[in-house]
Write a sequence for this structure.
């Protein structure tokens, strides 16, 4: 077995067809004497891993792998190398991570595993994530292979609007998910980490379908514009209200905008008629945060001087769970709602197991879907932000 030559793979990708990344990975895996190399990408609903075939057809990739019931799914959820002995060698599954966002699994077969082989497989998974992230914006291939079925027009608009579902640093992590993944129209979120300032917005646009997606595009655009201009939260909040009133006078949106100082853990936030987030500490929800709400954006005729803010001093390890009303109001006809209490109980249970934020969010969203018998009547979005404390001195 030879050492991986990551530089050679990067050079090969420089002028490559953006859809040829599986072929580049196949050639790189040859240095590990690996065979049957398969790239799996997680679908938009985070339930299955969809295979992306290499064009030389060296591997049988005719089937998907379930996240909840497969070795590939275990590597995806645990974000660790998983192996299984087979007659032709050892099958290895390694996470594919694009930045911080877990987006798939790389599977390959090697003759035997030792520490060096495992490290080489992990590096190949990291290479796959970086190459796909770099080239995904110039081809539709990777987007198409993430679809179990067709996205609605509104959902397609929404997914193109969103930031990565996961961000992780040594001081802060955020994980986000929204459903129904293939029909979502009104819910959206956005975030950015700028030096010591982490900014986040959660927005629920009135209505469904394309009309709601257009409102979402306006609100996210307004939020990003003012955030990049280093405006205050009060200004951003009032500007969102003005944008809605100007362009969609018959509609409205609820939501929250927040900023966290990642050096101190101080979170400041505003609330536009939206369900208040939950505060998790030591593996349990300790309370629901409160902020004096304004009317929803588009209804308030707000001045930034009239926008109320709330402040919360987070402790290292604290997490804040934002959610839209489609989460707590999910219910079957004649049945009870999912409710804030149920959400808090489940969030505490998963947090107490020290699961990663992205896995907590995935499990919570699946619980909401199952509660409504897989037929959500409204968009359901969950965003979990965890502050791990200031950067330790080096």
């Amino acid at each position: 077995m030879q050492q991986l030559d990551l530089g050679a793979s990067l050079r090969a990708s420089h002028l490559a067809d953006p859809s040829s990344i599986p072929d580049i990975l196949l050639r790189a895996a040859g240095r590990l004497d690996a065979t049957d190399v398969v790239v799996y990408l997680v679908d938009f609903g985070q339930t299955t891993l969809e295979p992306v075939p290499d064009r030389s057809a060296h591997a049988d990739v005719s089937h998907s792998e379930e996240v909840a019931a497969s070795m590939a799914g275990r590597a995806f959820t645990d974000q660790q190398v998983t192996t299984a002995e087979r007659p032709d060698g050892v099958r290895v599954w390694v996470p594919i991570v694009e930045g911080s966002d877990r987006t798939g699994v790389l599977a390959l077969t090697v003759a035997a595993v030792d520490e060096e082989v495992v490290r080489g497989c992990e590096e190949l998974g990291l290479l796959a994530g970086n190459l796909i992230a770099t080239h995904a914006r110039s081809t539709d291939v990777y987007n198409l292979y993430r679809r179990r079925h067709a996205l609605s027009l509104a959902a397609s608009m929404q997914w193109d609007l969103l930031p990565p579902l996961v961000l992780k640093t040594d001081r802060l992590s955020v994980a986000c998910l929204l459903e129904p993944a293939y029909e979502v129209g009104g819910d959206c979120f956005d975030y950015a980490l700028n030096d010591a300032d982490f900014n986040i917005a959660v927005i629920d646009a009135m209505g469904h379908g394309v009309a709601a997606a257009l409102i979402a595009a306006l609100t996210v655009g307004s939020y990003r514009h003012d955030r990049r201009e280093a405006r205050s939260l009060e200004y951003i909040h009032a500007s969102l209200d003005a944008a809605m009133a100007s362009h969609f006078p018959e509609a409205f949106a609820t939501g929250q905008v927040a900023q966290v100082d990642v050096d101190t853990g101080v979170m400041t936030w505003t609330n536009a008629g939206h369900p208040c987030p939950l505060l998790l500490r030591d593996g349990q929800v300790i309370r629901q945060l409160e902020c004096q709400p304004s009317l929803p954006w588009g209804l308030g005729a707000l001045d930034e001087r009239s926008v109320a803010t709330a402040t919360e001093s987070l402790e290292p390890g604290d997490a804040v769970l934002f959610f839209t009303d489609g989460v707590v109001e999910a219910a079957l006809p004649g049945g009870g709602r999912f409710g804030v209490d149920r959400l808090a109980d489940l969030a505490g249970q998963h947090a107490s197991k020290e699961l990663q934020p992205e896995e907590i969010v995935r499990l919570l969203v699946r619980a909401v879907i199952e509660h409504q018998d897989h037929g959500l009547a409204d968009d359901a979005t969950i965003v979990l932000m965890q502050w791990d404390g200031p950067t330790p001195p080096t």
